[in-house]
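Fold it.
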Amino acid sequence: MYQFNQLTMHSTLLGVLDENEVKFDLFPAYPAVKSALGISIAEEYSLAGLQESSKRNSIAARDLAKGVAVEFIIDLSGKVSALATFTDNMTLLDTVRFCASKVKRFSDNKLVLFFGTIMNSANENKVKALDFGVTDQMLSDGVEILAKLKTEMLNLRLSNVGQKQLTEQLKKQFAVTRSSLRIIDSMIETFRLSDPVLHRSCQNARKIKNLGGTKLSAWGKVFDADTKLPLPKAKISVVSYDSSKSLSGADLVKNVKIAGALGGFRLKSLATGTYIFKVSYAGYADQEVTVHINQGILTRVEIALTKLGTEAGN
């Protein structure tokens, strides 16, 4: 949560600075500091993205291997239970039945332990087990499934080590960003009396701590493709993307009318997924932009609109 709040705070302030670029022209050092700040924040997002994707991919691979192992154990347990009943091995029967009923809730290590136990039982009674459907191929498959599970468990542990390294890198990058922010803050302070609205906007951006259930998902601006001037009051329709539907049949998520004079917008609480941002402004060609939202990662979107009659370069 701390990392997400820091990323949100930095990106929100950068958005305020973008919207008020002209007002900072009186500071000769501003362009260089602003550039350094933007580069640093981009690096923060790169590290956070690596951290999130690495963790998600490792967990997904482990969960897949675990699911396959659980299904195999349930199948093998049924056959071993029949074998235990036939041989009147009540100890084995009780163990198998008890563990099989709870196997879906086992921790990784406990699952591996029981997997080994049930495989050993089948191997020790290999000849008789064949009569109950425990074939050599099944036992061979079991060896491969168990090996795959152990591999993915190890990869997840290694990923956790990598996560810690990325976290340390991200902390160092936050420190780099803070060095630029201290200079920006000194510039912002000069607007306390001359431009209290700008000063307050910057201060509010710097004070973001926890957005709770209203996390920022995307922010950006809409501007003229040729002049780069902002287009206030542009309209944005956000629809969820579903490749199985036409765009007109996709689900409308929200409509946004940009209220700021500098074309900036912020969207909150978008679930992870792909969206189409349909942007319109009087006198300009409508624009559609595909945006992928990752929960916990703030996405920046810049949308350039072209005046009607100039689409072909007129």
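The chain has two domains: 1-210, 212-314.
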